[in-house]
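Exercise (ungraded).
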Amino acid sequence: MNRHKLTRKIMGRLKTGFEVLNHVSVHRLNYKISRNEAKERRLELIRLSGRQHVDRKMMARIKTNCIKRFGDTSYWPWLALYTEMRGEFFEEWIPVDYYRFKLLPAWNQLSEVSQHKSYDYWLFGDFAVQPVLIVLKGEYYDSDFQPVKPKRVIELLSGAGQEVVVKADGENSGKGTVFVKTSQFRPCMLDNSSNYVVQPVVKQHPDLARFSENSVNSIRITTFLTEDNRVKLLHANQKFGRGTSRVDNLGTGGLFVRLDEEGRVVTGAMGDYGRYGEESHLVGGFQYKGTVIPGFRDALEKCRLAHRSFPYTRIVGWDVAIDYTGSPKLLEWNARRPGIWVDEALFGPLWEKRDILL
Amino acid sequence: MNRYKFLVKSLGRTRNSIRAINERLQNRLNHQLSRANAHELRRQVVEARNGKTIVDRTLKNKIKEYAAGRFGTPDYWPWLAYYAEMRGEFLEGWLPIDYYRFHLLPKWNQLSEVSLYKTYDYQLFGDFAVKPVAVKISGQWYDSDYEPLSEGHLSERLKDYGDEVVIKTDGGRGGHDTKFVATHEFNTDQLDVNSNYVIQPAIKQYEEMALFSGSSVNTIRIITFRTDKGSLKPVLTYLRFGRGESRVDNTSSGGLYANIDSSGYICSDAYRGMGLITEEKHPEHGFVYKGIKIPGFAKAVESCVAAHKRFPFTRIIGWDVCVEATGEVRLLEWNARRPLIWTLEPLFGPHFNGLI
């Protein structure tokens, strides 16, 4: 074997070796981080509520269940957190670490696509908000991906009302989203190594503005492609902001109510860990329970159709706004890591046994 | 800060550091590996030419100086030296593969893994792609519009598609993982449960294209590139055809290739492998390659540029297009991950001069 062939062989083996080492160590750390996050959240919840449901006996039960279902006791931390949140333990729950590191990689292919908000309109047509502009690494396009010259950029912006929303690809949950006055929009505001979608601000349905008029309040619909090829509604929540917040995410102080398949609110408003349990709206005074979300059935149908058009991912979280005409508009979709733990804990188990067979 | 919060933070930092270290190591090793490949290829060229080399000390220094000025470091010299050895002279403007793959492509091409999903081609490019008989995604069968299909319906459908169908696997490249199956022998049990598949009707190619090889579907490879000014242009165009009984036209399966000029005429001999073996005439039919007009070429270029516009996340895409018996051009496969240029760049390049 000559020198170059030998170098290639050694380098190739080193490369594979480092790749495996990296994969194994990152995989292990992912589990550790996730489990410590669950433990930290559990401590915080106990501190906030002043109650603890998981005693020694319950912990033993959870661990026995872990061995039976996952072959290992180490999956207990998320199940213990769920138990603290719900006040009781359910054997069919799926812990977040199992969901994220075992199920999701097997379930969701091509999930990176959902990180590209700039592609949503092309993928889902009018269910998505028609962009004013799409910016790919400093190059401007219209909603049909036709290149746009600087003069046309100004024309398109001026036709989009007083304010636009600028969303960065790769960001979720309201991060990387800014509201900009169209007259103040400057291309230099955007990073030339990133992608953006510039959208008109969605004027929401008055019934939804009652929840909070400062934020666009979205419905989170999570759909799941079952083994027998049905697109099933896994859970649906109406999210809304609080106070002056422009976004409705839990992480920024937002609240949510759970919806049934008809779009009827079936719980009080909840915040982090499903706490607060506010029965009626602080400002509007209306009872949450029984309120029907306008356009919900249409939104659910559109999510089902959208999921059908992208069958590479078995689970997708859809954030949908209902505009002032009652029409559902997709704000963002998440196929990479749709959040499930709050709903799994409070309203789960969300999956049937056969769904999670790998 | 409580114990768990501290652990989450410190473990998170450790994970990010491991990722960063691995990324750096991989990047270095990738460069080294690629350069070792270039050295080995150059050695093979010199060996094939009975030890005759044109890259002497003076030329090597000139190449290194050029690489330092053009790419910021002389380390990019090995591929340029290989190109010079192949061509018999050194040309400025050539793009070394290590610079292209590890420096430019990650910046140029986003979402490039989509091109690995052949099951998605028809959704993306409509009738420019071959309309599938059926696709299998995540264990489920669908028709071309992603309407669910039972296995019973699938067997029924197959009867309408003649004697043979083509089965391609998502993620498969270069003709590998492409199978030709007799429709009456098709059995879903033969397919891997964890893979995605697209079943396509077998292509009947244009008569003149079949002259190059009647066994393989011969394709036009077009590489389109989006310039800094935003316009799309074809930077490389060449014909690929199989040899002998081979059903595919890939170089790795013994196929040949010949350069096509912008008017659609073959403007070179046919090459095999890395380009050391050439032939002027077709061994069976005796026609000279140079000067032959490729049918449907203009339409193929136009269709590839239009398709690239539909997927603007990548600046460079390689398209494999065939010409059907009816004269229609049809996309067989596209590659946005690593469009191949290394065999062509020394023979017919530089292709990116003034574009980067």
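Further reading is listed at the end of the chapter. For now, observe: Chain B has a mean pLDDT of 92. Chain B touches chain A at residues 2, 4-5, 7-8, 11-12, 14-15, 18-19, 22, 25-26, 29-30, 32-33, 36-37, 39-40, 43, 107, 110-111, 113-114, 117, 120, 123, 137-140, 142, 146, 148, 196, 230, 309-310, 312-313 (CB under 8 Å).
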